Amino acid sequence: MRYKGEDLRLTDGGLGHEIEIPCYDESPTWLVDRAWDEVQTVAENALSAYMKFCRQENYRHSYLLGLDILFMGKIDPGNPRRLIDIRPTLVEGPCCNSYPACPAVDAYKLYRRLQVKQFDPDRIEYPTHPTMVRQKIANLLTGLHRMNGGNGLPRVAVFTRPYPESEEETAHVLMLNAFRRAGMEAYRITPDEKPEVKKGRLWIHGNPLDIVYRRIERIHVPVFYGDKLAHQIIHETPATIFVNPWEIDDLRSKTIEERCFRLWEAEHPDKPVSRPVTLLNEEVTPENVLKLAQYGGWVMKKWNSTGGKGVFLHFNDPVTAEAVKHLYLKADGRHMVHLDASEMQKELAGFESFNEDTAIQQLRLIDARVLDSDRRLVYDTRINVLFNPEMGWEFISGMSRSVSCGPGLQNGNSLLTNITSGAEISPLIMGYSRTPELTEGLNFGPILSAIMNGKTEMTFD
């Protein structure tokens, strides 16, 4: 899809292996006004907890982070047609998103696609305008360089996997181009470029690098770069600034993130982090998991749940069936376990001697927009933030990942809205309405509609 010389396709995959990601242009996700206020509060409390944890544990914090904040509610045990405790809910946050913090560089493409379709995305006052996201990230790199005593413009790189394994190839190229437009020397690093480590820095083509924006997880570096070079890159490059430091990547466990939030809330009970009820270690017992099941079920999140691969949703069918039918029409797919009464007892028995680095969380139902009589669109919102050393955390962009639901779906609706799990993209429009009437007639979905109306409960017809 090309308009006026611009390629507005959304793609994933390595060079020569790009796959176009479908986009629901006709159904943007609106995160505005009251909902935006509540989402900001959730994000700010989580980020404060993260920063305190980094200081306490002597970790260098990341400068780009993603927060998955979904609009969710849980089942009223006394009425399966009623959702209670409706709120924006952080399901994956600062600790679990320290790698590699996709800044949603597609925000510009999504914005332009809406313009081309004669839709006015500027009815909203954005925290950062979609046309300015890449420039803001480029400015961040220059600021970090000077904050650390550098002069002029930094020499920078995007550190990633080799082709064709490289993820979100378009994002790499767009960022490299943005850095170059800002006047910086910018390099792509894969094993093919044969990077070196010398004098405490990462080097490429004989040039020492000042700042590196990485798009690869720590656990994958030895796979692609070999054990020796991987160890040097991770442990022997103190003079090269990584926008997402390696040390923080060790915090990917949901169990560590939960401990981070608990430490914060012990000192700041007036600033809780909105998240599902979470059980850890000895708290995981049949009795405690049964309490979660009475409100709808539970979610098992294994330590490395990147891309939803280690996330499993357990539905207590007698409690959830009515709500699932109303919200999604049909819920069928991978990573979903529907339990009747006898199956529930078998599952609960498995928690008699549970001993894994795994968090067990309350199952909370995700909002879904109505596309037509036979289709629903389950969605989440990824909010991306940038740490400005002078101003603190700033909201820079976002994207909405969507999964279509309905009777025609055979398999694949995991309700886990990750691109790697088959999700698509909806434009995310976030901020404040320029005038109140601009929100009239927008498709918010029932849960988000409740939030917009100041409600925390709702009953299905």
User: Quick one: how many beta strands?
Assistant: 27
Query: Unreliable segments (pLDDT under 50, ≥5 consecutive)?
Result: none
Helix-strand category: alpha+beta
Share of β-strand residues: 25-35%
Instruction: Determine the fraction of residues in helical runs and give it as a percent range.
Output: 25-40%
Please, could you describe this protein's structure?
This protein is an alpha+beta fold and 461 residues long. The protein has 2 domains: 1-129 and 253-461, no CATH class; 153-243, 3-Layer(aba) Sandwich (Rossmann fold). It has helices at 34-57, 107-116, 133-147, 169-181, 221-225, 227-235, 254-267, 286-293, 317-328, 341-349, 446-452, and strands at 2-3, 6-7, 11-12, 19-20, 29-32, 64-76, 79-92, 124-125, 155-159, 185-189, 196-198, 201-204, 207-208, 211-214, 241-242, 278-279, 297-302, 311-316, 336-339, 358-362, 365-366, 368-372, 375-388, 392-405, 424-426, 428-433, 458-459. Strands 6, 7, 21, 22, 23, 24, 25 and 27 form an 8-stranded antiparallel β-sheet that branches. Strands 16-20-17-18-19 form a 5-stranded mixed β-sheet. The chain has a 4-stranded parallel β-sheet with strand order 10-9-14-15, with helices on one face. α4 (169-181) links the parallel β9 and β10 (185-189). α1 (34-57) crosses α7 (254-267) and α3 (133-147) crosses α4. The longest helix has 24 residues, at 34-57. The mean pLDDT is 88.
